[in-house]
UniProtKB/TrEMBL annotation:
Protein name, UniProt field: Small multidrug resistance family-3 protein
Classification lineage: Bacteria, Pseudomonadati, Pseudomonadota, Gammaproteobacteria, Oceanospirillales
Keyword terms of this UniProt record: Cell membrane, Membrane, Transmembrane, Transmembrane helix
Family matches, as InterPro entries: EmrE-like (IPR037185), UPF0060 (IPR003844)
Transmembrane segments: 6-24, 31-48, 60-78, 85-104
Membrane topology: Multi-pass membrane protein
């Protein structure tokens, strides 16, 4: 699995897990919503550990840009709210930063 695919899968798992807590706490959903949420957050952590980055902090930093873009996708597709231009500009800046972190040439 490529690094981008790992980050996208991890982002979906993290967002789903966090949304389960949001739904329970903010939308008055049943406590049962937390069970798949916890499983999803465990999946998220495992997926992120599959990254081929040399250091965890660098993997997490690069992943952050993908997470932001995926979160706006969630906003649009699940919560039925279109991201505005500021959301899109901010996500583009963050994704560019994640690309620099992930793809920068590093000497050995």
């Amino acid at each position: 699995m490529t690094t981008l695919a790992i980050y996208v899968a991890a982002a979906l798992a993290e967002i789903a897990g966090c949304f389960s807590v949001w739904a329970w706490w903010r939308l008055d959903k049943s406590l049962v919503w937390l069970l798949p949420g916890v499983a999803s957050l465990i999946l998220f952590a495992w997926l992120l550990s599959l990254s081929d980055a040399d250091y965890a902090g660098r993997a997490y930093a690069a992943y952050g840009g993908v997470y932001i873009v995926a979160s706006l996708g969630w906003l649009w597709l699940v919560e039925q709210r279109l991201p505005d231009r500021w959301d899109l500009i901010g996500a583009t800046i963050c994704l560019a930063g994640a690309g620099v972190i992930l793809l920068a040439p590093r000497g050995g």
